[in-house]
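One thing: can you check what follows?
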Amino acid sequence: MMRDGCRPEPPAPVVAPALSGRAVFVLVFLPFALGHFLSSLMRTVNATLAPQLVAALALTPGELGLLTSAFFLAFALAQLPVGIALDRWGPAKVQLPMLLLAGVGALAFAGGQTFAQLLVARALIGLGLGGCFMSAVKAISTWIAPARLPSVQGYLIAVGGLGAAAATLPVRLAMQFMDWRGLFLWLALAAGLTGVLIRALSPPQPASARKPAMLAAMREVYCHYAFREVAALVLIPHTVFFGIQGLWIGRWLTDVARYSEEEVGYLLYLGMAAVIFGAIAVGMITEWAGKRGVRPISVAAVGVALFIAVQAGFLLDWRPSYQLLSVLFTLVGTVTGIEYTIVAQSLPGALTGRAATCLNLLIFVGAFAVQAGFGLVVGCWRPDGTGHYPALAYQMGFGALVLLQLPGLIWFVRRRRRNPVEWASHPAKLQ
């Protein structure tokens, strides 16, 4: 029940039954992390398959961006219903039907013959995978102590990095034995089996002390100080990270750096592998800083500043090392995942599922806009005789992205300087 303004009444605490560390790892972390692995793989696989998809359907940059970003839009649309379902029935019961739906989408993608058919199939995949990460966050935040959340969620994001890495060189190797349609048949099977595994292994979800109505829950989440603070700083960089990493880094390496498909595949693999180390490092640094009185939002601010600096390298066409730029983008961009940790630590346990989905709703709508919009910007230029788009097209795209991210960082720095005492206070005291 809500009091005046945005102040919620504190909920009764919900205590999960005790499980051993080994049981939590085997029954909770591993199966849900596998779902996140698969979601990350299917989200980013189009970056590797882009040349084949363009050749098969004669896609323009705008169409390629729309086809790939349909995943993000459908993913975003699933967030609020999935969040309510997670808090009501628990992640295991939600994941099975969702992953089966993703499997149907993968089957449809494998059999699609037109752009429209593939677009709908890609959207079905995104819809079905819309609960993978939040289900994992919900399960982990239920069974893991709050002080351990930064590192454990860092490990979870690292598993997502493994999935994204699997979408690069391993997929290219698989293409030696099958085409992209065969690959999606195997992905459909993997989605179904993962859903069954999660349902079979996951321990029962403890009952929540309360289940607020959807609008009340959304109001409580969006009005929470920690949610608004982290969204203002990290939300747009997070959408840029997802939208560009999942497609346009590969196209930039092809069009601007002029690397071959094999070289692009290798660099994408290195970049996705960097996500693993970056995610683990962010979790460890956040825990280390927390023990010394440094808030996670401060760690996020430093990371966002570095991420914008990396994008400035694309904007300025930093030629000394195109390879380094592409890897740094994914390595530094992993800091944006700290949003989930801050929200999970700050909001009531009964709202963690809806909080994660409210956050994901904004992130994936933004990622859809970034990925599709970037393609429209690049498409304003004409390709050369070999089908490559000019460096200027990409520079304009990255310039627009940098301008979108700077206000949030500037707002954070100015607020810290003007109100150092308030900024240093615990968020709960500022609601």
Observations:
- DSSP finds 17 helices and no strands in the chain.
